[in-house]
Amino acid sequence: MVDRQPYTFDRVIRILFGVVSVVGLFYLVYILRGALLPFLVAWIVAYMLNPLVVYNKRVFKLKGRVVAITLAFLEVLITISLLCVLFLPSIIDEIAHMRELLSEYVYNSSSIPFVPQAVHDFIRDNINFSELSGLLSREQWLSIIEESFSGAWGFITGSVGEIINIVSWLVVLLYIVFILLDYDRILCGFQRMIPQKYRPMLVSIGNDIEESMNRYFRGQALVAGLVGILFSIGFLIVGLPLAIVLGLFIGVLNMVPYLQLIGIIPTILLCLVSASDTGTNFWLLFGACILVFIIVQIIEDVFIVPRVMGKVTGLNPAIILLSLSIWGTLLGFVGMIIALPLTTLCLSYYQRYVIGADSVEPPDSPTDTSVSEEVQE
């Protein structure tokens, strides 16, 4: 039995002092949350850009990080511009076409074969298609642009609130640049702040978490992007309205396991509206969309995931759903994205440190597999 130290006056004072210090630290963070938020946002962005900076420095054989950081910003800007040039015109055309379909569906009383009229009545009564149509109109987008220009004019005329907002964004940008310049030094500085007694264990755990998150998140982001492109192509082939928008939306949902199934709901509504306007058989169009779901899922499971993510997590589907619920409740949508690597990591540490099962093989996880060379670069 472990001998417990007696609660002397000196020990009680130290415990109280420690509790007061922790509470005071949290209160200080709460007071300074407005000043700390730009730094936290900048740190997240810098964390995501740092691999690109390291890649530029290695490929172009640069000595300093200034040129590599500049190249990283230019590459991100060029990538976003190319995506806008390639997809934005098609998205605008699809939105305009969808607005016409919605307008026709609101006033179209014809029924679709094998679809009860009560279904149409329920949809028309519970969904405000006029408001949706207004959101998709060019006038609505023009009003948003006018509001943006009015905000810029408010900044020009000396609005204090607008000036503070602009300065905040500039501070975030400066934070990003300065963090990227001394990224490794800052990490070493954070490690030195940990007491020497706990530093090896905490640094080891932090490195494991970072490695797990890097491999899983980057690999899953690539998988989600490829899946979104495949869905967009498939929906374009079958002639579904808003094909690119819906495909990319399902790709984003694919960041969370099983969440892409939510995309079936807007798919049904789009099939219903398209069939009502064009006279296409609803069930044929819906069946073609379901076929797209099945084909993309097969391509994802057979070709994309094994080559990008390596082995599957090895977790039971019930455990996966439970981990998604727990981490989603704690951390929101971000928690659902990082639920699987955190769960596999917690199980591994539980087996290693709690029950001491060194001989028990932990479940296969992204921490045990390596992402392909293209993903790491």
Automatic annotation (TrEMBL):
<keyword id="KW-0813">Transport</keyword>
<feature type="transmembrane region" description="Helical">
    <location>
        <begin position="319"/>
        <end position="342"/>
    </location>
</feature>
<feature type="transmembrane region" description="Helical">
    <location>
        <begin position="282"/>
        <end position="299"/>
    </location>
</feature>
<feature type="transmembrane region" description="Helical">
    <location>
        <begin position="163"/>
        <end position="183"/>
    </location>
</feature>
<feature type="transmembrane region" description="Helical">
    <location>
        <begin position="12"/>
        <end position="30"/>
    </location>
</feature>
<protein>
    <recommendedName>
        <fullName>AI-2E family transporter</fullName>
    </recommendedName>
</protein>
<dbReference type="GO" id="GO:0055085">
    <property type="term" value="P:transmembrane transport"/>
</dbReference>
<feature type="transmembrane region" description="Helical">
    <location>
        <begin position="221"/>
        <end position="250"/>
    </location>
</feature>
<comment type="similarity">
    <text>Belongs to the autoinducer-2 exporter (AI-2E) (TC 2.A.86) family.</text>
</comment>
<feature type="transmembrane region" description="Helical">
    <location>
        <begin position="256"/>
        <end position="275"/>
    </location>
</feature>
<keyword id="KW-0812">Transmembrane</keyword>
<feature type="transmembrane region" description="Helical">
    <location>
        <begin position="67"/>
        <end position="92"/>
    </location>
</feature>
<keyword id="KW-1133">Transmembrane helix</keyword>
<keyword id="KW-1003">Cell membrane</keyword>
<dbReference type="GO" id="GO:0005886">
    <property type="term" value="C:plasma membrane"/>
</dbReference>
<dbReference type="Pfam" id="PF01594">
    <property type="entry name" value="AI-2E_transport"/>
</dbReference>
<dbReference type="InterPro" id="IPR002549">
    <property type="entry name" value="AI-2E-like"/>
</dbReference>
<feature type="transmembrane region" description="Helical">
    <location>
        <begin position="36"/>
        <end position="55"/>
    </location>
</feature>
<keyword id="KW-0472">Membrane</keyword>
